[in-house]
UniProtKB/TrEMBL annotation:
Protein name in UniProt: RNA 2',3'-cyclic phosphodiesterase
UniProt gene name: thpR
EC number: 3.1.4.58
Record family assignment: Belongs to the 2H phosphoesterase superfamily. ThpR family.
The species this protein was found in: Tsuneonella suprasediminis
Keyword Hydrolase applies: yes
Superkingdom per UniProt: Bacteria
Signal peptide region: none
GO molecular function: 2',3'-cyclic-nucleotide 3'-phosphodiesterase activity; RNA 2',3'-cyclic 3'-phosphodiesterase activity
């Protein structure tokens, strides 16, 4: 069964700024250029028939184009241990509306509701217990910013686990109006 997620892909200029931050945390597993995206909805393993229904339903989303901007950095943690470093996204009502539409579509095809709060971000690194301290990196990049970019499409990706990490392949892309 395919592992799917819906995401936005930042342009090269933004990805270059993000890649320039990727250093100085020992044992961090930094994302590569092909992995940089903003997840609107993680779906996970999906029955192919449900995936087909999802593709059809996502294609009917009506949403305007808008701009996004990177704003600061942060981290996720589990049990007090940092698990990921990320670049934040400046608050944006159009992004929030688009994410809610994607969530409604996912539920309309029978997928379970997402219970985690939507925190717009672009994951930069995965961390395990061997990773070095993150506080210096967070302080160094606290004012991270990149050029605002126009969001004019949404993509459905398939994620494949490989020995070198996850590989993300676009399945279909929809243009925003």
């Amino acid at each position: 069964m395919p592992r799917l997620f819906v995401a936005l892909r930042p342009p090269v200029a933004v990805r270059d700024v993000l890649i320039d931050t990727m250093d100085s945390v020992a044992a961090a597993r930094w994302q590569d250029d092909e992995q940089l995206h903003l997840t609107l909805r993680y779906i996970g393993e999906t029955d192919p028939r449900v995936a087909d229904d999802l593709v059809d339903a996502l294609g009917r989303i009506d949403a305007p184009r808008f701009e996004l901007a990177v704003h600061g950095v942060g981290f996720f943690e589990r049990k007090g241990q940092p698990t990921a470093l990320w670049a934040g996204i400046a608050p944006n009502a159009a992004l929030d509306t688009l994410q809610k539409k994607v969530e409604r579509v996912c539920q309309s095809v029978g997928l379970e509701a997402e219970h985690r709060k939507f925190t717009p971000h672009i994951t930069l690194a995965r961390l395990n217990s061997a990773a070095g301290p993150v506080a210096p990196w967070l302080a160094q990049h606290s004012r991270l910013a990149a050029p605002a970019w126009p969001v004019d499409s949404v993509r459905l990706y398939e994620s494949t686990l490989t020995p070198g990490g996850s590989q993300y392949d676009p399945v279909v892309e929809w243009r925003l109006r």
